[in-house]
Amino acid sequence: MAKVRPPTPTYPPEEQPVSEENRATVTKKVPVNLPESNPERRDIPPDLPKVPRLIDSLRWHIARFHNNWSAAAAAAGELPLADSRYRPKEFLHYLNPISVYRLPPPTTFRELPPRCRRREALYSFVFSSNPRSIRRAPLSRESLSQFLYDSLAVAEGERDGATGFLPRVNHSSGGSHPTVAHVFAPPVLDLLEEPFAAHYSPEGHALEVRALLDWDFFCKELPPKAMIVGISTIYWREVWRHGDRAFRYCHLDVGQAIAAVAFAAAALGWGVSLLDGLSRLDLETLMGLRPFRTSGCFRGRERRDNFPSVELQNPVCAVLIFPAAAPKFRIIYRSLSDAISRYFGSVAWAGEPSPLAGGVHIIYHEIYRTSAAIERFWTCNQELLIEPNRLLQSRSFPELLGYENLTVREACRSPRSRLLMDPGHELDPEAFYQFLYHCLPSGHPEASLWQKRWSFPFRVFRWNSRIEVFIAVNRVKKLARGLYCLVRNAENLQSLKRTCSPFFRWEHSREWSRDLPLYRLLLGDLEEKIAEIAFDQPVAMNSCFTMMMVRVCGGVPGSVPSNYPQLFWEAGVLCYLLSLDAYAMGLTASGIGSFFDKQARRLLDPGSGLIQTLCLCAVGKPRTRPE
């Protein structure tokens, strides 16, 4: 039988150069004068070395991959159409596990009696520097159910318009939910009397137990009463819609899952830290996954056939969950890696993942090639050190914003990502600055602390801030329209000034910055320009402000190519935080993962090409859909 090739996709074409005579008839005039980009400039940043060393070759490969995955591929007909014939199944299950434990459905906040409501963790408390501000819940069947229900379960809301999938608490940038979660826990009260490893099934809110573990692993290698959540991703769940751009969507979803886990754990008085010193082999052994070998995916630009191997999970990271008020402790990664090999290498794993496709797969080789290249140059941290006494408190204005009674559970499970926003709404300046304070990794305006990851939820990472934020202000009271920059890492300030457009002013005034590292770059109306970058999506034009999360190549001293996925994790955490803050203030935040990267570079750095755009997020007043 002849293979059926899908029709040509209808993605927005990339902007083509036009003459000065016809420019006025093609695009509307934007009141901000931007320099024209050099058509002869290469897309590869000029600071990348040309010596063919392996590490330099990887830097060049990542830069080329990032700069070429935009809508150019869609315009050339290289991206598959989101056709239902290629759509994967909505949920992943493990067939024939040891047992399946359906967790009790947690009581919603609205169903709680008033006395119990007062015991719930308030949303403003998670940003407190006092780890005892929220009462710690013991690890039990009820608390574990609550934790998973508020972080990784199915959420309320409408199905995704393109995939038809149900929404989840951990958002999916591409709508296909490629993230998979595995739980490794000690004995849980009223659930299991032995340590276990299980896959979490969001469809039935259940644990599919795959193995029983050795108690010594939790006693000797982890802090008391700690557990691990392993996160993996399936690239193919996004490739069928977005081609090579699935790399961006999958790792943004990993960041959203990390943030969801952090907020749900904080509501129970638990702390969270990323175990970033484990290698891919360690994660494969820990999660009991079959090794994902991608050599067969490298041949050709795209392939359509039955390739079940591409449905295998790619282990991404592991998150440590521990009591927030725990004393100072240290984990040596070499010792933990040896323990994983010793305790998990001989585990008899039960269950096989269910097939996700009806038979036809679409493979784009570049996403797998890049993933394998990053793994090759992975670098290991030596240890993990938790110091609760060094945590700082974010500035907050609950008495002004009116969410002093909002609980973490309400915020986590709230419906978000509205596609319609009110273009006439003006944002109060107090709400705007609340967003910015929470976006600082330290939560503190002091310049020497900007990059420190001491504030929630950025304390989950073990590195200082690596991404910066440009803000297109459309409608904020008492603040002029234009382009602003929130410098999240003071070490990047001079690099930003050298890299960005020479037309940027870099003005800083305490009158409108409120002691924040907020710089004014351009004045003028940027609504149409941002909408042009964001595929003309209405939310970019109708929002009160739009954040552009970027990374400056070579801006962080000691950066290595292996941290490329981590940039998207940090951007995903920031998007999740913005969505919760927006709901707390009666607004909505919509992540924008589809955009013209070249247009963004033309706005920010038309000459150097050193800025890589990771994600956009628009914040505004939600508007009901017209009947």
UniProtKB/TrEMBL annotation:
Region annotation Disordered: where it falls in the sequence: 1-45
Pro residues composition bias: residue spans: 1-15
Residue ranges crossing the lipid bilayer per the database entry: none
GO molecular-function terms, A-Z: oxidoreductase activity
Protein name from the UniProt record: Uncharacterized protein
